[in-house]
Amino acid sequence: MNPSVTQKERIISLDIIRGLALFGILFINVGAYQLLMEGAPMPDMSGINGVIDSLIDIFIEKKFFSIFSFLFGVGFYIFASRAEARGDRPRWRFARRLFALFVIGIIHIFIFWGSILSIYAVIGFLLLPFYSAKVSTISKWLFTIITLHILALLGQMYMPSNAVSSAIFGFLGNDAVAIFIMFLSGFLVAKADWIGHIGAHSQKIKWLLYSTFPFFIGFSLWIWFASQADDQQLQSIIGLGVVPTTYFYLSGLFILLEHKTIAKLLQPIGRVGQMAFTNYLAQSFIGTAIISFMGLEVVSPSDIVVIASITFIIQIIFSVIWFKFFTIGPFEKLWRYMTYGKKVVSKQS
Q1: Which of 224, 278, 288, 343 could form a disulfide with 331 if both were Cys (CB 3.0 to 4.6 A apart)?
Q2: pLDDT value of residue 9
Q3: In a domain, 5, yes or no
Q4: Beta partners for 114?
Q5: In angstroms, how far is CA 318 from the centroid of its own chain?
Q6: Tens of pLDDT along 49-71?
Q7: Containing domain of residue 185, as a range?
Q8: Backbone angles phi, psi at 86, to 5 degrees
Q9: How far is 32 from 115, CA to CA, in rounded Å?
Q10: What is the pTM of this model?
Q11: What's the structural domain count of the chain?
């Protein structure tokens, strides 16, 4: 049994989108690399910093983690279906992969308190019952969960609050539900065989792009005005826009990356995405080191732009060089070993 995925088997657009998602995640995580203690100075949010903070809320906050979550769902189907094709037990093998992710995630929390890995692992177990489900069944589940999630967020914003309703709305409107929505969305798209045949489904993807565009514009304006007014409902408004905005981003990216010239131009970013696990873990180290080198006591939104950009450039250079000598990232190799219990060849032949 050979668990390795060859370069020919890789879907390059997924690597590029995964790399872009990692860049977006940096804009959220960089500010969290330095804990704010009680009595410590707060980041400057005046002038350009306030504008940058609002733009991050509009274009990045929760959206790029959602793209990453979508790709996790895609990855689950690709991994499990290939395991089944080899005669392996797909659910058991993926459960072991999730447990390995959980262990690594717990360790990472001691390095970066905001690590999402262990949470991904726990939520990922909810995908297992859907592996053998029909596409139509998954679609119905997805529509129902999205509807409940949106109603819960609206309920938090506009319904009178009491203990029971607060508990229900808090559960269904939680970010964990949004993560699962995107897990299931990615799994559905992969199972429906869209991922490997984007061109054949281009009309459906374009329809999704056009239909989500008005929502993207509407929520962008709503978030802008809410952020300028210091609206206490800002996070709920951002949460409401996550699903349509993420679908808009993804459909646009998949259509764009069908152009071979653009895909080739963005291939270095694809290298970052090809070892996204390693790069996600490395970001906390690189970002913290840059903050220390810059001597920053607090990290402002303008600092976040600089630090995120420098970190990502470093990761592009490192990833491109790495794949000249190896076929798999170092932590991907560890994760694969924990999944299969055997060594994986990682050097280029």
Answers
A1: 278
A2: 47
A3: no
A4: none
A5: 21
A6: 999 999 999 999 999 999 999 99
A7: 12-340
A8: -85, 0
A9: 10
A10: 0.93
A11: 1
